[in-house]
Amino acid sequence: MAASPDVTERVLAWARIDFSPPHRLPQWWRVVLATVLAVGLSLAADALLVLAGTHLFPATKGYAHFAFSDYAKLTVIGVLIACAAWPVVTRISSAPRWLFFRLAIAVTVVLWLPDLYIWHQGQPAHAVAVLMVMHLAIALITYNLLVHLAPVRPGRPGGDAAASSPLAGRARTSGARRDHIHRG
User: Fold this and answer.
1) SS3 122
2) Whole-angstrom Cα distance, residue 169 to residue 163?
3) 108-150, pLDDT tens digit by residue?
4) What DSSP element (H or E) covers 180?
């Protein structure tokens, strides 16, 4: 059964999804830079948290989910998905940071569900707590790098991007010269 237009409109308005944001998208190279840094810093944070966890809770040494090969692939996949989502959110929302922050919280909570499940199945509580902190650290690192290193830019989408290109600048200059010549 489809949702009524009123409900859909209210949900979209609450989520600040309007498909015509008043800003320009982040520059692609800034998104790439933020992505590379987010992957690297998230993996470093994971490694430090595993070191801290095994130091504070020696019984967790050798825990299977603390192996680099175990957490690294999941970290990289998660960070890449989040970094791909940021430009999409900036395109569909007039308040992308507001929406992306709430999405980051929701995704982190959802990612804690498997952690809680394995704890419920008998995995060590201290080890699971470290995994949960790892998820939180990855979310904080990725969110902050994206919104600060690859922010939206002021101006209208489309029109301003074309007007700010070097070729457009030359066209404006030569057009101004033509106007000056024709008037003079």
Assistant:
1) coil
2) 7
3) 999 999 999 999 999 999 999 999 999 999 999 999 999 999 9
4) helix 166-183
Q: Please provide residue 113's backbone torsions phi and psi, each rounded to the nearest 5 degrees.
A: -60, -45
Q: Give me the half-sphere count of Cα atoms (radius 13 Å) on the Cβ side of residue 6.
A: 0
Please state, in angstroms and as integers, the Cα–Cα distance from residue 58 to each residue in 44, 49, 51, 85, 153, following that order.
20, 13, 10, 38, 48
CA-closest candidate to residue 75, choices 39, 33, 127: 39
Say what the alpha-carbon torsion angle 45, 51, 52, 54 is, to the nearest 10 degrees: 140
pLDDT in tens, 156-180: 765 444 444 444 444 344 444 444 4
Q: Residue 165 corresponds to which tokens in the numbers above?
A: 């290109």
Q: Give which of 72, 96, 79, 77 is closest to 22, Cα–Cα.
A: 96
Q: Give the residue from 30, 15, 21 showing the smallest Cα distance to 101.
A: 15
N residues, the chain: 184
Q: What is the pLDDT of residues 100-110, one digit of tens each?
A: 999 999 999 99
pTM over 0.85: no
